[in-house]
Write a structure and sequence with these properties.
Layout lengths: L20 H9 L3 H17 L3 H8 L3 H5 L13 H12 L3 H14 L4 H13 L3 H13 L4 H17 L3 H14 L4 H13 L3 H14 L4 H13 L3 H14 L4 H13 L8 H21 L7 H43 L92
């Protein structure tokens, strides 16, 4: 039985809790359940004993933020699938384009931002005719930070796609980007110059192709295209030199032989050659071109025979012109001989000086009425005799009959071309990278 004198312990009222309790209670509320129970027991004990145990409990139980915070792991270095890309490039060089695509995909599986793999894949897709993939890969390379040299090859493929669509202005714009991205590459400048030749912009083509030849002096196609540009601005001697240089670098270059034939056919004049010799030289180059194609198992296009016939017709016209000129010269010579003979038959001049004019005599007095004046005697002018009857008067000295109209020598205007090599035959323009050539 409880002693009535003993007092029941009273629970402290809320107002008696120390002022530091709310902060500690907030700390306890954020703890996990097991730790919360332990902390509450410690808090009650500390309240009754006045010992700040809660702080030590908080130190023992870290906050959830500290528990969930982890150190971020450093990612491993990027994988460079160079072996796969080299294998893809070898397959591309061997013209196994589908195999090159497969190897390039394997490289991108290891590193999806590896731009060399994208470039090989784009080139293979271009050869396979899958142009949409080329455009997509070009955008991917741009987003992945591809180098200018890599992007220039994408520009070049896009430019060739415009060439196939006959969009020459679009091709020129892309070839310009290509050349600006790689200004030390002769192929890029040659391709740009070839497109200028397509639109007959010879003035723009000359400096561009001169740069290509300067960067790579053994570039046969650049020499041939430069010759065509010189022919377009009628610098025939320079055009001849460039065509000859292309043949010196590659003696079996049939296109250069063909262009020499066009040069001699179209040029208004060639050094050390008259019209007949010029056209005969054109025919010989066309015949040589046909023989080269025959040896290679190919057939010459029909327009070659058309040009040969055109040159032969020009030779005939030139021969007729020369014959007419010779006849005219013979007629002029005969007239000069006859005139000299007629002049020799004329009587020599008397050489007597003309008598001075005498003053007029005063008029005689009028005759007497009924008489008539005697008629005055008239005399022929001194030094002149009447022409014999039945003879025509000779032509005056120094005059001759008007010459006949002479036909001017045949001239040929520069013909239109359908390729960058100024070839009439349907062939690819000389814009691809040469295989020497």
């Amino acid at each position: 039985m409880m002693d009535p004198m003993m007092e029941t312990p009273k629970t402290p009222e809320i107002s008696q809790i120390p002022t530091t309790m709310p902060k500690k209670m907030q700390t306890i509320s954020t703890m996990p359940k097991p730790m919360k129970r332990l902390a509450l027991s410690a808090l009650l004990l500390a309240t009754s004993m006045g010992t700040p145990v809660l702080a030590r409990a908080a130190e023992v139980a870290p906050a959830p933020e500290a528990q969930t915070t982890h150190k971020r792991r450093t990612p491993p270095p990027a994988v460079l699938p160079t072996e796969e890309v080299m294998a893809a490039q070898k397959l591309y060089d061997a013209r196994n384009y589908q195999g090159a695509v497969t190897k390039a995909k394997a490289a991108l599986n290891k590193n999806e931002r590896f731009t060399p793999a994208m470039l090989v894949m784009a080139k293979a897709y271009f050869k396979l005719g899958k142009y949409e993939w080329v455009k997509t890969l070009g955008e991917m390379m741009k987003n992945a930070g591809a180098r200018e040299a890599e992007r220039s090859e994408i520009f070049q493929m896009l430019a060739f796609m415009e060439v196939e669509k006959k969009n020459t202005p679009g091709a020129i714009a892309l070839f310009k980007k290509t050349a600006e991205a790689r200004p030390d590459n002769a192929i890029m400048w040659n391709n740009l110059g070839a497109q200028y030749l397509v639109v007959k912009n010879y003035r723009e083509a000359v400096p561009v192709l001169e740069k290509a030849v300067k960067l790579q002096p053994t570039f046969t196609k650049a020499h041939m295209n430069l010759g065509s540009a010189y022919r377009g601005i009628k610098q025939y001697d320079k055009a001849l030199a460039e065509y000859k240089q292309a043949l010196a670098l590659f003696p079996r270059y049939a296109d250069a032989v063909y262009n020499l034939g066009i040069l001699y056919l179209d040029a208004e004049a060639m050094p050390n050659a008259d019209t007949t010799a010029k056209l005969n030289t054109a025919i010989s180059y066309f015949q040589q071109y046909k023989q080269m194609l025959t040896n290679a198992g190919q057939v010459a296009p029909p327009e070659v025979e058309t040009y040969v016939a055109e040159a032969q017709e020009g030779i005939k016209k030139e021969q007729k012109r020369i014959e007419r000129q010779k006849k005219q010269e013979e007629r002029d010579r005969q007239r000069a001989t006859k005139k000299a003979a007629d002049d020799a038959k004329k009587p020599p001049a008397t050489g007597t000086p003309a008598t001075p004019a005498t003053p007029a005599k005063p008029a005689a007095p009028a005759p007497a009425s009924g008489t008539s004046a005697a008629p005055k005697a008239t005399t022929a002018p001194a030094g002149k005799t009447a022409a014999p009857a039945g003879k025509a008067a000779a032509p005056a000295a120094g005059t001759s009959a008007a010459p006949k109209t002479v036909t001017a020598p045949v001239s040929y205007s520069p013909r239109s071309t359908n390729s960058a090599t100024v070839n009439q035959r349907p062939s690819a323009p000389a814009t691809a990278a040469p295989r020497n050539p």
